[in-house]
Design a protein that fits this description.
Among the domains are: 125 residues, no CATH class; 68 residues, Winged helix-like DNA-binding domain superfamily/Winged helix DNA-binding domain (Arc Repressor Mutant, subunit A, Orthogonal Bundle). The strands form two sheets. A three-stranded antiparallel beta sheet has the order 2-1-3. Helix 1 crosses helix 2. It contains ten helices and six strands.
Length: 293
């Protein structure tokens, strides 16, 4: 170990869930809390996951969310134990793979571990990955599809999923897109929605759908803003205002009317929308749309 007490050579570590004490036995491996992750590393690798869960830099969101849930419910980090240390790289990979295989992985239904791969050299990417170059057969895809038919998450599960992605649990919490990212997204949206990139390119809506769209548009009531700021052919409002002395005044262009009398147009509009009862003694008795020529 170095001066900080961290192993210099390869070691295998285990994450334990402090919420689940007990006697957990998997072959020759015994734990006083339920294990939920096994890894191999050097230096401070075992503790790096804790920082990654805060910075949302770990691709294994299942593992990351479990760490966050433990912190949220207990106020402490998970227990981390160094199972075996002082090994060479190859021996550590072998032990990691063996422990994962015996304890079992949650994603394949064999155990409680959050590991997404069998560990060892199988955790490598590219050609070193055990699934590299392989594909599910059509029959396997069909079975997977059928197995998910009718599956619904419980309300409790939905709430947990929602909570895990809310606030600090959201991968984008406290972050903002850079100007370059916004520009790239804008370009991609433009490409995907213009010309051949548009889903409706070369297609036409059937007449029945066109009629439904027209009917739905007729039911949409335009807002005050949309009417007053519309084009020359759009509907505009004729206001019937009541001044502080109780006189009715008919106004076609309320924006200019307010400007000429030193009134706040936004406040008059809020009165019209029912947000205020009156503004400086002014009330709105009625609004009727008028068509300009």
């Amino acid at each position: 170990m170095n001066k900080a007490g961290i192993p210099d050579k390869c070691y295998v570590y285990v994450y334990l869930d402090p919420r689940k004490p007990g006697h957990y036995k998997y072959g020759e491996y015994h734990f006083v809390y339920e294990p939920f992750y096994v890894g191999k590393g050097t230096s401070d690798r075992a503790w790096l996951h804790l920082r990654e869960s805060v910075q949302n830099k770990n691709n294994n969101t299942y593992f990351t969310n479990k760490i966050k849930n433990i912190r949220r419910l207990t106020g402490f980090d998970p227990h981390i134990i160094i199972h075996t240390m002082g090994m060479c790289d190859e021996s550590a990979y072998v032990l990691e793979e063996r422990m994962i295989d015996i304890i079992g992985r949650s994603n394949i239904g064999t155990g409680p571990l959050c590991n997404l791969t069998p560990g060892g050299l199988g955790a490598k990417c590219g050609e070193d990955n055990w699934w590299y170059g392989k594909h599910h057969t059509d029959e396997a895809k069909k079975k997977l599809s059928i197995s998910h038919v009718g599956m619904k998450a419980s309300e409790e599960t939905k709430k947990r999923m929602s909570d895990s992605m809310t606030g600090e649990g959201n991968p984008f919490y406290g972050r903002k897109h850079s100007e370059s990212s916004l520009k790239k997204m804008s370009i991609i949206q433009t490409i995907n929605n213009t010309g051949e990139g548009n889903p409706m390119y070369g297609k036409k809506h059937p007449q029945e759908r066109i009629d439904r769209i027209k009917e739905s548009c007729r039911k949409i009531k335009p807002t005050v803003d949309q009417i007053e700021r519309g084009s020359k052919t759009a509907s505009k409002l004729r206001y019937t205002l009541i001044d502080p002395e109780g006189n009715e005044i008919y106004v076609d262009r309320v924006h200019w009317f307010c400007k000429e009398r030193g009134l706040c147009y936004t406040s008059i509009r809020n009165v019209a929308q029912g947000k205020y009862d009156q503004y400086k003694g002014w009330k709105v008795f009625d609004m009727t749309p008028r068509r300009t020529n």
